[in-house]
Design a protein that fits this description.
Length: 296
């Protein structure tokens, strides 16, 4: 609990707040330990409506502290963001701009737009994660919703700009994990940074808000790498080589991928599992046919 934000009142202590629902009216003695916010935030509904924020539940207290932290982050975002012109070296800025990718520009974000962004992302995450705290986000839909609610004088905000503002400012750079959390603008950004830094993953991740070096490496090697772009099905020769390598290496898919140009780790693993299922199904069918054959 940040003492700069709260006045703590222990059970039985005299509460000197102008208004409070957690003390005895006659004696002003606290009926339980609670905290009064030093800010001017007020409750919007219920018995406390209109009173300055005060609560006894630590979960509520910490949630209110996070509101202050987010607003402080937004106020100083020009210094904190990975992608503002002042924070990104000129060579990285030029590489991103040459590829037609947006830089994060905190100057186009009003406090109201940032609050709407937070609400839209949280709502999407709740839907896609079944009520959990994380989930995939359709940034195009977020940008469209923001455009529909855009206030007078507010800038038009793209899907990429929404993603960068949420990652760098709202989420304060915290690591983003989960299936489906990568998006097309992020993949394009990753490809440019990998080419620029020659797969120095720590440097790449520095300009990928919310991503760790390992995440960048695995995403590039398994999905984004242009060398993986190929068309057509697996050939019989590739299948034979894959099965031979699995027998020799004991299912070391990364080693197999290096010997099969155009195939990623995931591609190799998925193909091997498909071949194994086909073999098992064929063996089961043969066994069933043999068992059901009439005796001679």
């Amino acid at each position: 609990i940040d003492p700069a934000l709260w006045v703590r009142v222990n059970l039985g202590d005299r509460c000197e707040a102008a208004q409070c629902t957690l003390r005895a009216p006659a004696t002003r003695l606290a009926t339980r330990r609670h905290y009064h916010a030093k800010c001017d935030h007020r409750h919007g509904a219920g018995a406390k409506a209109g009173m300055r924020f005060h609560h006894h539940q630590l979960e509520k207290i910490r949630k209110h502290q996070r509101v202050h932290a987010r607003r402080a982050a937004a106020a100083s975002a020009e210094e904190q963001t990975w992608n503002s012109p002042s924070a990104v070296p000129p060579d990285v800025t030029e590489a991103l701009a040459a590829a037609g990718l947006e830089l994060h520009d905190v100057r186009v974000w009003s406090a109201a737009a940032t609050d709407r962004l937070r609400g839209l992302v949280e709502a999407q995450q709740q839907r896609t994660s079944g009520g959990g705290a994380a989930g995939r986000v359709a940034w195009e839909a977020v940008a469209a919703a923001l455009a529909a609610e855009r206030g007078e004088g507010e800038a038009e905000l793209s899907a990429a700009q929404c993603m960068l503002q949420w990652r760098a400012v709202v989420n304060q750079g915290a690591t983003v994990t989960g299936v489906g959390t990568w998006c097309e603008p992020e993949d394009k950004r990753l490809a440019v940074l990998v080419a620029h830094f020659n797969q120095a993953w720590s440097s790449v991740a520095r300009y990928m808000p919310g991503r760790e070096p390992k995440q960048c490496r695995e995403r590039f090697n398994n999905v984004v790498n242009p060398a993986l772009l190929r068309s057509g099905p697996w050939t019989p020769e590739e299948d034979a080589l894959l099965e031979s390598m699995m027998q020799q290496t004991g299912h070391r898919f990364a080693d197999a991928a290096r010997c099969l140009p155009g195939h990623s780790y995931n591609d190799v693993k998925n193909r091997f599992n498909t071949l194994q299922r086909a073999k098992n199904s064929a063996a089961a069918a043969a066994a069933a046919a043999a068992g059901g054959a009439a005796p001679a």
